Amino acid sequence: MAGGVGTPYMKLYNPYLKRANLLHITSVAILCSLFYLLGVWQHSGNTFVSTANTIPTTHHTACPPTPTTTKPPTTTTKTETTLDFKPHHTFNATEELKSYPPCDIKHSEYTPCEDRERSLKFPREKLVYRERHCPKKGELMKCLVPAPNGYKNPFTWPKSRELAWFANVPHKELTVEKAVQNWIRVEGDKFRFPGGGLCSLEVLMLTSMGLNSSYHSAMVLSGPQSILVVGWGAYLLSRNIITMSFAPRDSHEAQVQFALERGVPAMIGVMASNRLPTHPAHSTWPTAPDGQFLIEVDRVLRPGGYWILSGPPINWKTHWKGWQRTEQDLNAEQTAIESVAKSLCWKKIKEKGDLAIWQKPTNHVQCKANLKAIQSLQFCSAQDPDVAWYTKMEICITPLPEAKDIKEVAGGELKRWPERLNVVPPRINSGSIRGVSPDMFTQDTDLWKRRLGYYKKVNNQLSQKGRYRNLLDMNARFGGFAAALANDPVWVMNVVPTISPVNTLGVIYERGLIGTYQDWCEAMSTYPRTYDLLHADSVFTLYNDRCDMDDILLEMDRILRPEGTVIFRDDVDVLVKVKAITDGMKWESMIVDHEDGPMEREKILMAVKTYWTAPPADQGQSTNPTS
């Protein structure tokens, strides 16, 4: 073709012109890159780290030097423009870096929302005084909770199941009270957990329930007079069943603390007037006034879940004298339990020795008809059954999703473990989670597998077995971070913040994972030094202007073990502010690029809490963490 529209079309594909254009473009690109790098070298002493093989061991400044305070020349015409090529992700170095002193040694086991002195201001009726009662903003401590003198890194899993350092949890109360059961004893500078009669109970329980790969998550609730948390959770893990243990902070000084030290999931909690901040699982717990506690257990049990009771009043005919209670009292208590269980439509599976097991129905088709006939408990109609943060219990049955017939599992049947971990959960398939599609879930699962791979490149200790055991995901969404870690010898507490736009805790439990609700403007219901690693994905963007950033970071310092790791993901400007505060907390940290490259505004801040402890008792107040 000659002329017309054909000429430029042919020229576009002329190979000689194309090669010349490529050479020209390449030359310009190289020159631009050289001048850009020269400018960066001249004007910036530091930059963000793009790759790394280990977590930091010394301080790294993630920001360039503070820009000059000299103002640029004033423009004389409206058409002139002053271009500013300087980086703006900086912390004002002229401001004095705020440092945080150590708290007094008496606060080494401080749990802000379960403070004993504050709890006495609340009524004892229904154990309300043992519930969460958090300090107000003006009462928050601006200091670093010290580890006790002599604190050592916990034993690695599974050795930690049998052993714990005495210096880490310096309490002997349980060794005296539970000496007969042989659950715990002191051996030199260590605690040993032999297990006592728990293994035989475990075998009976698993045999009676027919537990197999259908079950993966369970809940162990410790009541005011029973202590299950020091044993059950640890040994069920050997059966590939992860437990979520609760116990109050009471006269048995360290039930939850011992469990966490051993590498077993646990939280401080109590059955009182509020709902448990968790979701349907499988559960064990004793009785309650007016059936209220069993009704709450029914709420958190999923369709077909089991309730296991070990201890008073089961087998009271054998143990009543040892329990120092009358036969009449114990008989009446068991009769009340049987009555409430029946009104909840539970089926008693077995009672043998010191153990009794009930099963919740898989749907309420037959239950609704039975309840109308006997005019017993009614179904709840007001509150959302998934809402549990500071929500009062109700004396009514939480209705299950509708089922077509008696054979259908309400809400959808779960896959067996481990398949259920990565298949789309029934809640999402049914469309009951607003704004969440199956494709979104699948993409999120794949995304976190890729992100975990990047984390392990940046921090190679994530690939070392035994370095981490207790993990916390502060903004878990669907639990993708925990799911990606499923083959590692770790457990993850998945937190759904109470201000999250979508409530996904039910999805987390349907995957066979564990989790809880939490408002990060308040302290978590756990002891200091609970976790080896914290994962904070967009937490500070989520809580922007809701509470002070340093209050959240001080709480993170409280629940993180010495030499523990934190992985922050957030906007670069947010991370610069976070780093400035953590520097004042004497953490070692560095900012690295997003897994998709340096052009992403979202960055990753890797931080490590430095090791320091309180001084010996005869030296008084804790020394500064810098020493």
From TrEMBL:
Topology versus the membrane: Single-pass membrane protein; Single-pass type II membrane protein
Record GO terms (molecular function): methyltransferase activity
Transmembrane segments: 21-41
Record InterPro entries: Put_SAM_MeTrfase (IPR004159), SAM-dependent_MTases_sf (IPR029063)
Superkingdom of origin: Eukaryota
Main localization, broad class: membrane
Signal peptide: none
Family the entry assigns: Belongs to the methyltransferase superfamily.
This enzyme's EC code(s): 2.1.1.-
GO cellular component: endosome; membrane; trans-Golgi network
Record-given protein name: Methyltransferase
Cross-referenced PANTHER family: METHYLTRANSFERASE, SAM-DEPENDENT METHYLTRANSFERASE
A Pfam family the protein falls into: Methyltransf_29
Keyword Transmembrane helix assigned: yes
Region (Disordered): 60-80
Cellular compartments annotated: Endomembrane system; Membrane
Alphabetical UniProt keywords: Glycoprotein, Membrane, Methyltransferase, Signal-anchor, Transferase, Transmembrane, Transmembrane helix
